[in-house]
TrEMBL record:
This is Lrp/AsnC family transcriptional regulator. Keywords: DNA-binding, Transcription, Transcription regulation. Residues 5-79 form the HTH asnC-type domain. One of its GO terms (biological process) is response to amino acid. GO terms for cellular component: cytosol. GO terms for molecular function: sequence-specific DNA binding. SMART domains: HTH_ASNC (SM00344). It comes from Vibrio ostreae. InterPro entries: AsnC-type_HTH_dom (IPR000485), Dimeric_a/b-barrel (IPR011008), Tscrpt_reg_AsnC-like (IPR019888), Tscrpt_reg_AsnC/Lrp_C (IPR019887), WH-like_DNA-bd_sf (IPR036388), WH_DNA-bd_sf (IPR036390).
Length: 154
């Protein structure tokens, strides 16, 4: 259950979104609450699942995986077992970093991170070999214009 957020909670969320490494003391110095109050509020926000985790953003180049492809996927049908098999495939495919169920022509939009066209081709072949797909449309990302935008703006 999510309780009502006050201005301090929103400010904590904004600050942690910008820098998840802020300590409770640093939060305290910025927003004017004690470090212990900031700690309690942070724990409460985590328990309410309003803070989903703390992550390091790693450069794709560091992983030698600097090709992004957006893949629109239409399933053959939407039988529960086949859909679950498809979702299981998506969840177990390391090249797929995000997947979204969508409206429109495609059933899913998948974001993949691969090293090169050969690796992308192999991923697309693995998707097709599930025998659950009726159509795939792939777009290779040429430039990252905006990525990882803030959920809460100032």
């Amino acid at each position: 259950m999510v309780s009502t957020l006050d201005d301090y909670d929103v400010k904590i969320l904004q600050l942690l979104q910008e820098n998840g490494r802020l300590t409770n003391q640093e939060l305290s110095d910025i927003i004017g609450l004690s470090a212990s109050q900031c700690s309690r509020r942070r724990i409460s926000l985590e328990n309410q699942q309003l803070i989903l985790g703390y992550h390091a953003r790693i450069s794709p180049q560091a992983l030698k995986q600097d090709m992004i492809a957006m893949i629109e996927i239409k399933l053959l049908n939407h039988e529960q077992e086949k859909t679950l098999n498809f979702l299981n495939f998506i969840n177990n495919e390391p090249s797929i970093i995000d997947a979204f169920k969508t409206t429109g022509d495609a059933d899913y939009l998948v974001k993949s991170l691969v090293s090169d066209l050969d690796t992308l081709n192999a991923l697309i072949n693995r998707i097709f070999t599930t025998k659950l797909i009726s159509h795939i449309k792939t777009s290779v990302v040429l430039e990252r214009v905006k990525e990882h935008g803030n959920v809460i703006s100032q």
